[in-house]
Design goal:
The chain is an alpha+beta fold. The protein is 73% helix and 7% strand. The strands form two sheets. Strands 2-3-1-6 form a four-stranded antiparallel beta sheet. About 4% of the residues have low confidence.
């Protein structure tokens, strides 16, 4: 511990013994450093905060709401791009005197380091710019910082509000191109399908459709067989009822000819009402006339028979209808059975053709679905673009508008001035100490003893006369005055800095 204390005391004595050298070096370093600090231009920072409301009620009601935060993040991330910063340079004083591309690229590169876009919350972020040009005054730099931030805000609005419509138009144009390609492919697929269907009509829709057709025909066959069984059962019951009903009513006046005449009158009355032969009442009357005409022919010209039974004639007419219905159902059943057999034969005998039918049908369905989806997407985007134009989908609130800064943000000149003073004093002390180390002198007897490893018998004190002491006191006052002058210069520089900063703008 004593050794360390002795070394410190030796170093201090060495510096103090060469204090004028140390003070001169300190003055030189401080003057140079303060001159350099004075040449550093002041930088002024302007800042703005924006809140973006991404809740779009109308778009959500229409079912076309997009992810607004993603779009806002995209605009925020590209706000400081080279293209946008070039717009800032051209729109402010930063672009004055720039005549060629290299100068513009250099200005954009400098501005890239000076602009910051930061997210503070989900919908709140800030834009800041720091400007410090050497060829401008402090007031001009402060105004320029505000102008840069304001220009960035303008670009932000253009990029999202006006740029949103551009993006919509680009998306629609891209979809139109895809739709044209899909339409051409769809038309070609449809032409192949029509050509195949013309050659193989039974395989329209592919083998899957063929199986569905067979299943549908079998279902229809079951329905027809059920209807046919019901019709045959009803016909059997009707035949039994006809057998128990007499053709004529005994003891009544008139005959078959009279009944025929009456039936013909009824038929004429129906036709006089404008009813066609296809009308059910007219058809029933015609059938009754035919039956009565047959009875009249059997009875002969002079034969008198009983009055025809109207119930019997009605039952006969109903039976005729049911017979016709049964024949139609039987014909339909035969036709369906023939179709089923034909489709089964096609399915079994031509598997390659059925596979081709599957491929053609599948390709056509896929292309048609893709085409319809693209159509729907285009309409959704067009509707969204119209909503953006009509309602300004996202709303911007300027929380803190950019203002002209009243004091520089950098450099911290007072701290630098004080730092230069400390660095100057350290440099002076270091030079004095280093010079002392280069000299082969010993400041204390203990150091001499350690260096030569020999005992030191004693030390002779310096005898100072009164004249020498007076001279030493005078020189000490001069050293104190020179040191105080160094501190005084620092105080003056600090005062000038405070006054200068207070007078900005």
């Amino acid at each position: 511990m004593d050794d360390i204390f002795d070394e410190v005391r030796t170093a201090l004595y060495s510096v103090w013994n060469r204090r004028w050298l140390a003070l001169g070096v300190a003055w030189a370093v401080c003057l140079a450093g303060w001159a350099f600090v004075a040449m550093i231009p002041n930088s002024y920072e302007s800042r703005a905060r924006i809140y973006v409301d991404v809740d779009d009620v109308l778009s959500e009601q229409l079912g076309i709401a997009g992810d607004g935060r993603e779009e806002i993040d995209r605009v925020r991330q590209t706000l400081a791009s080279a293209v946008n910063l070039e717009k800032v340079v051209r729109g402010t004083r930063l672009g004055e005197g720039i005549t060629d591309r290299p100068e513009m690229n250099a200005a954009v590169a400098d501005l890239t380091e000076q602009v910051r876009v930061r997210s503070e919350q989900n919908s709140l972020f800030s834009i800041s710019a720091t400007v410090g040009k050497r060829d401008l005054t402090d007031a001009q730099n402060a105004v320029l910082a505000r102008d840069v931030v304001q220009k960035l805000l303008d670009i932000f609005r253009e990029e999202h509000i006006a740029g949103s419509r551009i993006d919509v138009n680009r998306a629609i144009a891209k979809l139109d191109e895809q739709l044209a390609e899909r339409k051409k492919e769809l038309e070609e697929a449809e032409a192949r399908r029509l050509a195949f269907e013309a050659e193989y009509p039974d395989l329209i829709g592919g083998s899957a459709s063929l199986s569905n057709k067979i299943q549908e025909l079998r279902t229809e066959m079951r329905d027809i067989e059920a209807d046919l069984a019901g019709a045959e059962s009803s016909l059997a019951a009707l035949n039994g009822q006809i057998q128990g009903t007499p053709r004529t009513l005994p003891g009544s006046a008139g005959g078959a000819k009279a009944a025929l005449a009456e039936a013909q009158q009824q038929l004429a009355a129906l036709r006089a009402r404008g009813l066609k032969d296809q009308h059910p009442d007219v058809e029933a009357a015609l059938k009754q006339v035919v039956i009565l005409r047959q009875q009249a022919e059997l009875a002969g010209p002079d034969e008198e028979v009983g009055t025809p039974n109207q119930a019997y004639a009605s039952l006969v007419a109903i039976r005729s209808d049911r017979l016709a219905n049964i024949e139609a159902l039987q014909s339909r059943r035969a036709a369906i059975q023939s179709q089923i057999s034909s489709l089964q034969a096609s399915q079994a005998s031509e598997p390659a053709v059925a596979a081709e039918a599957n491929r053609i049908s599948r390709d056509y369905d896929v292309l048609r679905q893709n085409y319809e989806k693209l159509l729907q997407d285009r309409e959704d985007i067009r509707t969204r673009g119209e909503v953006d134009d009509e309602t300004s989908q996202f709303k911007f609130d300027l929380i803190d508008p950019p203002v002209v800064p009243q004091k520089p943000s950098a450099p911290n000149r007072p701290l630098l001035l004080v730092g230069v003073l400390i660095a100057g004093c350290a440099a002076g002390a270091g030079v004095a100490y280093g010079l002392g180390q280069m000299r082969s002198t010993f400041m204390t007897a203990q150091k001499l003893e350690r260096s030569f490893d020999l005992p030191v018998i004693g030390a002779i004190s310096l005898a100072v006369s009164e004249t020498t002491r007076a001279l030493a006191r005078r020189r000490l006052k001069q050293f104190a005055g020179a040191s105080a002058g160094l501190v005084g210069v620092l105080v003056i520089l600090l005062a000038i800095e405070i006054v200068t900063v207070g007078s900005v703008a």
